[in-house]
Structure formats: C-alpha cells, structure tokens
Amino acid sequence: MRALIFAAGRGERMRPLTDTTPKPLLHAGGKPLIAWHLEKLAAIGVRDVVINTSWLAGQFATALGDGGHWGLRIHYSYEGETPLETGGGMFRALPLLGDGPFIAVNGDVWTDYDFARLPRVPAGLAHVVVIPLPDFRKPGVFEQALAPLLPRGDGRLHTLAGIAVYRPELLDGLASGHYSVVPRLTQSIDDGQLTAEAFSGTWRDVGTPERLAQLDEDLKLRGFS
Asked: In which element (H, E) is residue 87 found?
C-alpha cells in the first residue's frame, strides 16, 4: 500500500516561521511534523510515500532524503509555485500512487490516531477519519451531509481529520487544476460510496506558531524532545 502526504501549502497563518521553512518541516517533539507521519506509515507496512510539494520544495529532499532512514521510498510530486489544493494535488500525484487504494494524510496535523486501524481497501470510494468540529472551523455542506453516517453521540458536527484511504477512482472524470477533494467526498456520501470513522483521541491542527509551540510543549511533557 502507498501513501500520500499533503505538504504543498504555503502556511500563511504560520508566518513568519514558514517564510524560511515549509510547515511540515517545522519541529515539534524533537522532529519535523512530517516525520511523525513517516514513522507511523512505515510501522504499518507502507513502503512508498508520495509527498506533494510547492513552497520551498527543495527543502524536503534535503531534510528527508529518499526515505531510507524510515525504511521507506519517498517520491516527490512537485506542483509548481502555486499549490493545487487537495484534489488537484492528489490528481497530480496519481501516477506515483499506482492503481490501488492509498492512504492520504495532511502534513500539518499531529495525532495519536493508530494508522493500523485504517482499512487497506475502503468499502466504497473513500474511508475518512473525522473529528468533532473544532471551534476554529466553520461547518459546510460536507459536515452536514456527513452527520447521518455517524452515531448520534452529543450531536456535534464532525469534519475531516486529514487522514483517509482513497481509491483512485474517486477522481474519475477530473482533470489537472486547482481544486479541493471535498466536493467529491460530499458526492460520495450522497452516492453511498463513503464510510467514516469518528476519532476522539489527540488531534492537533498545527496551523499557527502558537499551536506549534503548545504541541511542542505537550510532547516534551510526554517525554519527546
């Protein structure tokens, strides 16, 4: 099984740190954010990882090399000077991801979610991990459409955690360009082709310098430094 890590974003909210370093290469707990994902992917048997890049793209190969440190083979999908968003970036990376289902992970989140829980083959076109909607995110059409798939719980809406398994067929009929994958996921809900797993463990959107500093402090308290 292969995996895609989204790492092409400019990281505007993380400036000035991202003026000189891509957000997934910023450190927390003594290592780059993206390294936490690489370790977890290697631990479940993934051997080929595609990293999409744009802003300061050359720094990734310098920092991560070919992936041999983790027992991985890293392939880089360069998107040009302007990131293609999740849908466009995924479409660009498809030739490197092969014909089978693949894991996709946002490079700017930290979580203790166990990647071994992910299905190797989704029942439909996609299986997504979702979390209770954070206060800093506004609900949209996807969040409303997702609600019937989840247990009632406390009634809170859920949103994408940035961890999923996709079939390449999810993007059938699309072309290269700048677009989000979320409309396709919403359509997949309507078509009965999406499954969702609610996660209530530790999950952090490392979107600002303050959140990065807090995550780093929390990881140090856990013994990582």
From this structure: helix 85-97
Segment 85-137, tens digit of pLDDT: 999 999 999 999 999 999 999 999 999 999 999 999 999 999 999 999 887 77
Please, which pLDDT band fits residue 222 given cuts at 50, 70 and 90? confident
What whole-number distance in Å separates Cα of residue 111 and Cα of residue 135? 18
**Domain count along the chain:** 1
Confidence label for 225 from pLDDT (cuts 50, 70 and 90): low
Strand partners, 126: 166, 194
**Alpha-carbon separation of residue 149 from 26, 49, 101, 153, 181 (angstroms):** 35, 30, 21, 12, 19
Write out the residue range of the structural domain in which residue 124 sits. Answer: 2-221
Q: Map 187-207 to HEC letters.
A: HHHHCCCEEEEECCCCEEECC
CATH code where residue 145 lies = 3.90.550.10
With contact defined as beta carbons under 8 Å apart, do 34 and 51 qualify? yes
Q: Residue 5: phi, psi to the nearest 5?
A: -110, 120
Distances 140 to 145, 148, 190, 204 between C-alpha atoms, Å? 9, 15, 15, 20
Residue 154 has pLDDT above 80, yes or no: no
Q: What is the pTM of this model?
A: 0.94
CB within 8 Å of 220: residues ≥ 6 apart: 29
Q: Which one is predicted more confidently, 37 or 207?
A: 37
- Is there a contact between 221 and 31 (Cβ–Cβ < 8 Å)? no
